[in-house]
Structures are given as structure tokens and as C-alpha cells.
Amino acid sequence: MESANSEKSRPNWLSRALHDDSTSLAFFVGAAVLIVLGVTEGLIMVIQFVFPDFLAGIPWLVFGRIRQSHTNTVMFAFLSMGQMGFWYYVIPRLTGRKLYSEALGVISAILWGGAVLAGVILELFGFSQGREYAEMIYVIDVAVIVVCILNIINLFMTISKRVEQNLYVVVWYIAGALMWFPLLYFIGNVMWNPPSGALTGINDAIFNWFYGHNVLGLWFTPGLLAVSYYIVPRETRTPVYSHFLSLIAFWGLVIFYTGVGGHHLEWAPIPYWLKTIAVAESIGMSVTIIAFLFNMWMTMRGNWNKVGSSLPLKFVTVSWLAYVLVSFQGTQEALRSINLLTHFTQYVTAHAHLSLLLFGASAVMGAAYFCIPKMLNIAIWSKKLANIGFVLYIIGFSFFFLGFLLVGLTQGAAWVHIGLPVWTVLPGIRPYLALRAAGGTVLWLGFIFFVVNILATVIVRKPVSVPSQSEVKSNTGLVPDGTPAD
Ligand code: HEM
Ligand code: HEM
Q: What pLDDT is recorded for position 483?
């Protein structure tokens, strides 16, 4: 913990920059700025699918390079920084302690943001290790691991000095993600082999997908579910229905998620037993999901009317519902008979967006709209813009997702049932690709509205309006946005 003496001895500019929650704010702002790059890359790609000559001849904008830069930007810049912003906000509040070191935290945010930005730009110029979700080059991997260690020091030191005796379930999930990710990243990126960051042959595929799915299941899933476990009870003023069910869902992740990597390789020559374990564990994940669904559903009982009036709750409700949906979809997709139809198609990418976008991005946006006004004691710059952004986001996503599904199912059906080669299907799927591009454009706009609103909130710092008497009386947990409720 930084002492009062050390605060006094700081130069003025440093004291202004380093205050409570400055780490959280730095991570959130980084996430908001960098998502502009991520979604714009996505937009370029959906247009390229309809008009393959779009931006042709510019080497750093060819599909293969943008795609990896897109996935790494949305995952490691936006979602990761967003979830870390939330963790740095929530851990001090749930432990009753100030953050161990805001200075260390801000350094972590700058290092992470700078390193990942460098990594994804270098990918556009062809510097890539070419393994899915592990593309960033070695030096960037080292920076990622350094920040993970700084996070562990900062957040675990805060937790270890806690005055609140209960270890809330939110803290469990965050602690899990903090510990698992560096190990996973180290193994998945084969960091003991710097020249290539890879093994050889089929072993490399097994390692890559052990990492590939666990980065989703043991980094983003616990990190982002923590948002639902915190914001749903806070905004509905109802405790989580069952601590026990939360722990079943937590341990379910640990037990079942760790072995599912093989379901990405059902048609690759990996050992058959590895595939069978992966399919069985994918089915086992249903236990986790049912426990989570029941818990959230019961917490929301009698509270659904609050969703309309709370912006963070809107995003977070979409997030946890999407998590449930995508997990059931994933369990089906893992079955061999269905995977045969879907694997080599864009159905998988539909699933990827239902998960990382609708579950993940919604959680980050809900968290940003919840935490930033509270930590700065200000109001959201424009609630109207935020609500319009939300509607665009949902409508845009629906058409975008439908386009992906239709493309994927057509590709799969043509391949499995009629044995048509890929190129013959292309004219038939073009209308669906166009639908996806149209939805994607609206979705892109939804993200831009979010970014503008968050940055304007931080820069303009609109004062909180005092709630009227009637609002206070009828307070059923509908805290007006921006009212500090901590
Ligand atoms: C935070 C928001 C987003 C997230 C988390 C996200 C995530 C992803 C991921 C994980 C993939 C790789 C999927 C796979 O390998 O199966 C991907 C690919 C892709 N994304 Fe996104 N994305 C986001 C936003 C967007 C937007 C706004 C657009 C379009 C406007 C878009 C268009 C695409 C396209 C066209 C692909 C390549 C599809 C393919 O190769 O078949 N994404 N995205
Ligand atoms: C019960 C839970 C889940 C199961 C059983 C499951 C299963 C699957 C399966 C079978 C695939 C397709 C593999 C293929 O044919 O190539 C897949 C892909 C994917 N899943 Fe899930 N999924 C689950 C939940 C999630 C969650 C919560 C996330 C995000 C946090 C997620 C993100 C993804 C992504 C990004 C891909 C695309 C990977 C690629 O690039 O090929 N899934 N999942």
C-alpha cells in the first residue's frame, strides 16, 4: 500500500495522474481507444468478403494479415484491457483495501496497451508467428508475461491485506484468471523456444489448441463472468441467489474446460482418445452452464423490469444470456456429427462472435458504463447516445450473426450432403455475405458510439445530477447513472 508520506513526496503532476482507480481508468481508456482499430479491421474484412478487390494491392491490408491483427486486437487489446480495468476497480472494493500500488498498475496498463498495439501493427506488416491466437512475436509475448506478473503482485497483495473476510465469488473468478493465464500463455506460445515459438508437427497443433480454447475458457470466461457476478447483484440490489451454485460453475470450468482443446481438431490426426475426452468434457460443460443459468435466473427473478432503466445492466444481461446460449451451441458443435457439418465453415466464426463479441464485448461495455462514472463521481456524457448505441449494437449484431450462420450452414450442407467443392458455393452465399456486411456496418457504428461516449465521459466530466425526491422514494435499486453507490 502506498503510504501517505510517499504520496506527499510526489511531484504535483504525478499526484494528479495517480489517484485511486487510475489503473482501472487507464485500462478502460486503453480498451476503448484500441477497439476502434479492432472493429475497423473487422469491417474491412466483411466488405472484402463481398467485394474481394476492396483495398486490393495494399500488402498490409490483405485479408490474411488483417484477420490475425483483428483477432489479437479484439482479444488482447479490447477484451483483456477491459476486463483488467474492471478487476482493478472491483478488487479494492470487495476487499475493503486500496490497491497495493496505483503506480505499478498504471505502468502495467501502459506496458500492456503499448506492447499489444505494437504486436498487432507488426502483424499487419507480416511479423507473425502464424499460430492462431498466439501470433504476436516473441518480445510481445515477454511483455505480456511481465504484465501478468505485475498484475499478480498488485492484485494478490491487495487481496492478502483484505479487511473484508468473505472472499466473494467475483474474487474467486478473477484470482483464477490471474493465475491460469500466464502459465497458459507461456505453454501455448511455446515460449521456451524463442526462434519459432512453436513445436513441430501434430504436437504443435495439440499445444496450440490446448492454449487456444483455454485462453477463452480460463482467461476470458472467468474474467468476464466476474462482471455479471458483480454488476447483476449491484444493479438489481439482490444478492447472488446461491454462492454454492457459483462455486459449482467455477469448479466446473476448472474440471471440464481444461481438456476441451481437442474439439478443435476432430478431423486432424491427433490421438482418438484425446478427441473423445474433448467431446466428453464439452458435454460435461453443460453442468457448469446449467448451474450458472439457474443462479443468474433466480437472481434476476422479480428484477427484469430494472434492465430497461440501467444501462450497465442492459449490456451485462445481454452478456450473460449470450454466454449461456453460446455454451449450449458449443456443446452441440463439439459432437462429431455436428462438427462434421460445421467445422470447415463460417459457422465456427459465428460461434466465435456470439461468444467473444456478444458475451465478451457486452460485459466490457457494461463494466465501462458502470465503473467509470462511479470512480470519477461523474455522469455518463450522453445517456441518449449510449442507448442509441446499444440498439445499433443489438440490431447490427443480429443481422451480422445471421449472415455468418447462413453462410456457415450453406457451406457445410453443400460440402457434406452434395460434396460440392468450396468455390461452387461462393455465388450462392454472396447475399448472406452482403447481409453480414450490412449488419457488421451497423454493429461497427454501435461500437463507435460507445467509444465516443466513454472518451467524452472521461474528458468532459459532466457533474452528477442530484436524484429527485420521487426517484429516491421509488428507488428499487435504480441508481441513476453516475450516482456513486459505493
Ligand atoms: C469486440 C468485437 C469483436 C470480437 C471479439 C471479434 C472476434 C473475432 C474472432 C475471435 C475471430 C476469429 C474467429 C475464428 O477463427 O473462428 C473473428 C474473425 C472475424 N471477424 Fe470479428 N470480432 C469482433 C468484431 C467484429 C466486427 C465489428 C466485424 C465486422 C464488422 C468482424 C468481422 C470479422 C470477420 C469478417 C472475421 C473473419 C471471418 C472468417 O475468417 O471467416 N468482427 N472475429
Ligand atoms: C460449453 C462451452 C463451449 C463449448 C463446448 C464450445 C465448443 C466449441 C467448438 C466445438 C468449437 C469449434 C471447433 C471447430 O470446429 O473448429 C468452438 C470454437 C470457438 N469457441 Fe467455443 N465453446 C464453448 C464456449 C465458448 C466460450 C464461452 C467462448 C468465449 C469466451 C468460446 C469461443 C470460441 C471461439 C473464439 C471459437 C473459434 C476458434 C477458432 O478460431 O477456430 N466458446 N467452440
A: 34
Report the alpha-carbon distance of residue 322 to residue 393 in Å, rounded.
Answer: 14
Q: How far apart are CA 426 and CA 420, in angstroms?
A: 11
Atom of ligand 2 nearest to the CA of 133: 40
Ligand 2, residues at Cβ distance < 6 Å:
132, 216, 220-221, 263-264, 282, 285, 289, 323, 326-327, 330-331, 333-334, 339, 342-343, 348, 351-352, 355-356, 360
- Measured distance CA(379)–CA(70) in Å, rounded: 32
* 221 CA closest ligand 2 atom index: 30
Query: What is the distance, to the nearest Å, from the Cα of residue 318 to the centroid of all Cα atoms in its chain?
Result: 13
Q: pLDDT tens for residues 325-354?
A: 999 999 999 999 999 999 999 999 999 999
**Distance between CA 363 and CA 317 in Å, rounded?**
9
**pLDDT at 142 exceeding the cut of 50:** yes
Positive/negative CA dihedral, 42, 46, 49, 54:
negative
Is the beta carbon of 372 within 6 A of some atom in ligand 1? no
What is the reported pTM? Answer: 0.93
Taking a C-beta distance cutoff of 8 angstroms, is the pair 258, 176 a contact?
A: no
**pLDDT at position 274 over 50:** yes
Residue whose CA lies nearest to ligand 2 atom number 15: 343
pLDDT tens across 39-94, in order?
A: 999 999 999 999 999 999 999 999 999 999 999 999 999 999 999 999 999 999 99
Best CA proximity match to 400, nearest among 447, 368, 363, 367: 447
Gap between the Cα atoms of 2 and 19, Å rounded: 11
C-alpha 449/C-alpha 456 separation (Å) is 10
By the 8 A CB rule, do 399 and 438 touch? Answer: yes
| Mutation to probe ligand 2, out of 71, 227, 329, 333 (largest number of atoms < 8 A from CB) | 333
137 within ligand 1 shell (Cβ under 6 A)? no
Quote the CA–CA distance of 49 and 42 in Å, as a whole number. Answer: 11
CA 123-393-387 angle, to 5 degrees, is: 130
pLDDT score at 467: 61
Place of cell 503532476: 13
